[in-house]
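User: My collaborator sent over this chain with a note saying "see what the structure looks like." That's all I know about it. Can you take a look?
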Amino acid sequence: MAASPGRRRRWEREQARLKASVVEEDTEEWQKDARFAGLERVGGVDLSYIKGDDSRACASLVVLSFPALERSRSCLCLPQVLYQDCRMVAVSAPYVAGFLAFREVPFLVEAVQRLQQEEPQLQPQVLLVDGNGLLHPRGFGTACHLGVLTDLPCIGVAKNLLQVDGLVRDELHREQVRSLQRSGETFPLTGTSGKVLGMVLRSCNNSSKPLYISVGHRVSLDTAVRLVRACCRFRIPEPIRQADIRSREYLRKQPCAPLEGLEALPASPERWVYGQKGLCSWNELQ
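Assistant: Without extra context I'll predict from the sequence alone. Here is the result:
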């Protein structure tokens, strides 16, 4: 499935229009505190596809307790999941490099809107996105797109370098990655334009593979890097890791339903909230 030239031009115009709303600086009081005092809820989003079928996926939104997440980094306890929403979706937009948001973000926006309507007190104060923000061919990746449409602070967290503005995965880059010896060490991603597009972060001591952090919306790059590091028990920050784990587990539970049944499959969505007895399904609370 390919996108027509006309559709690509429309997408480019929409990206340019929305990009004008991106805020590349801190807007919240908790962002200005060295220990993020006041930050209670951190969200992560993910889309996992059925193996061999790129038209069916599970969209997942997870909200974690940030204070509990901080505690879990220094002990063996699990992070506290305050809310979980997993739902099968029918993906119709084609995959086109540089336009992933038009394929996936609508489902993530819907997940955020459901949370805002049903459990507004659990709305995340920041979202971590498995993808890029300003580190993008037109400076408007998935994290920017989701941030602008939800008006929530968003951070792009990518596992691989997107080669834009002269950035390349060459020997010099690999040598810089090897120079990151300890958790928390970084170096900037400066394009040939002279603009710093993101930061390379070694997120844990147990993995030499770095993360590529970029601003999505309503957050500075420095704050984004500090927060991602604070959310890492392993290489991948826990909100994204938990969203990925839960979306994949949800897929494993699904029968091989025909595609035409998926539109109704907000059909048996799996939503969980943290109640008095711990994590329980939304249906149990009704």
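A starting point for your reply to your collaborator: The two ends are 41 Å apart (CA to CA).
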